[in-house]
Amino acid sequence: MDNRPGNQGPQRGNQRRGPQKEKDPYAINERIRAREVRLVGDNVEPGIYSIHDALKLAEEQELDLIEISPNAAPPVCKILDYQKFLYQQKKRLKEQKAKSTKVVVKEIRFGPQTDDHDYNFKLKHAQGFLSEGAKVKAYVFFRGRSILFKEQGEVLLLRFANDLEELGKLEQMPVLEGKRMTIMLSPKKK
């Protein structure tokens, strides 16, 4: 260990490192680098201000100057409480996420010579999936020489789509991709 003055070795304990604000998604107050900014918001007269004047207005209201749109010319800023602003942004994102619907795709696999019992069993599952709001991707998988029965596979998929006509609509006609012939059904809106 080096015993020279000024070198105390690794620092430990409750010492604060600089401000941990580097991860902030928005530039605030003195971290805004533009010479002039466009101020918008409720508690200020909208217009273009020098950065000095904008910071002075924010300080008078005991709030933060937040750069909302850094790519605009000049950058757009608002005078708000920064923590409250971040909270509102998170809340808005959460609401948007809740409103967006996730599309679930369920797959049903057939062979080219599926018998009636298996077909009806899979048809009931597809009816359940469509009534829950999920899309159904039905396909016939051809193994080896069974590719010779392409027409049988196509007839089976069209029959399947026809039997599900009242619950779902056919998005695409049967398409042969490699060893699979596929159709896609989406649920009808209620």
Task: Please give a structural write-up.
By secondary structure, the chain is of the alpha/beta class. The protein is 31% helix and 27% strand. It has 4 helices and 8 strands. The strands form 2 sheets. It has a 4-stranded mixed β-sheet. Strands 5-6-8-7 form a 4-stranded mixed β-sheet, covered by helices on one side. The chain is rod-shaped. The termini are far apart. The model is unreliable at 8-21 (pLDDT under 50).
**Which overall shape is indicated by the principal axes computed on the Cα atoms?**
rod-shaped
Strand percentage: 25-35%
Rounded mean pLDDT is 81
Structural class designation: alpha/beta
What fraction, in percent, of the residue positions are helical? 25-40%
**What gap, in angstroms, lies between the N and C termini?**
76 Å
Helix-strand string: EEHEEHEHEHEE
Based on DSSP secondary structure assignment, what is the total number of beta strands?
A: 8
Give the radius of gyration. 31 Å
Strand adjacency order, main sheet: 2-1-4-3
Query: How many strands, which pairing sense, and closed or not: the largest β-sheet?
Result: 4 strands, mixed
Work out the helix count: 4
Poorly predicted parts:
8-21
Topology:
Layout (H helix, E strand, L loop, with lengths): L35 E5 L6 E4 H10 L3 E6 L6 E5 L1 H18 L5 E6 L5 H17 L2 E7 L8 H14 L4 E10 L2 E8 L3
Parallel strand pairs: 1-4, 5-6
Antiparallel strand pairs: 1-2, 3-4, 6-8, 7-8
